[in-house]
Fold this protein.
Amino acid sequence: MIELRHVTKAFNGRMAVDDISFTISEGQIFGFLGPSGSGKSTTINILTGQLTQDSGQAWVLGKDTRQIGSDDLLDIGIMSDTIGFYERLSIYKNLLFFAKFHHVSTDYLDQLLRRLDLFDDKNKKAIDLSTGMKQRLLLIQAVLHTPKLLFLDEPTSGLDPTLSREVHRLLLELKHKGVTIFLTTHDMTEATEICDEIALLYQGKIIEAGAPQAVIDKYSDKGKVVIRFQNGKSITVPQEETANYLGQHISSIHTSEATLASIFIQLTGEKFEND
């Protein structure tokens, strides 16, 4: 569904995307993870034909991205803060336009509005929406026609945990229908839970990639546990030595498993942060 080979893109001499390659199969959720300025948006813009790479090759739906036309875009859904909506129209009228264009029933539109807790506010003008409500409007706009390929830029940003979980359920349902999902997120837990494959992006380069648990296992201290004491101190010891510390005011004992966030710090020396 998506393939990049040695793609590069620079702006004013600054390398935004530096020799990146990856492949995404049909029906996968692919997490593209990186802080602001790492090259995520540039990559999406190349894949959707909005930008042309300086070198390398990129294909979407079996077609060179430099040859994407309007008919190809009918099979693609894009959620991004660069994709606009009609500010003076209500939530419902914004989405009704897309529903009619794609021949989608209003019943399905209403179902999505209810799932994402927008139905009661459907007559509110888009210009008056909170950040979280705009996110949900743009998400519905992107998924409404059940595209073959879906690009989502931070779909749960600004959402509470309950709505985030509902978005995750919706994305997994789309995945089971064969939709391929390209997801950018700064939420490492989200990526671990719902993505089939991830790539960590830093300063335009992919620094690690693979199935989330495989990446975590690669950097975890197997056979070791972290013991936390009630005074706030903690130590990492081999699992077989745990018994030596029992009775010493321990507050918790858990396996020494890495997280995607800790792996990012280990590889870059920097915290994973978004603006």
About this structure: Residues 221-256 form one domain.
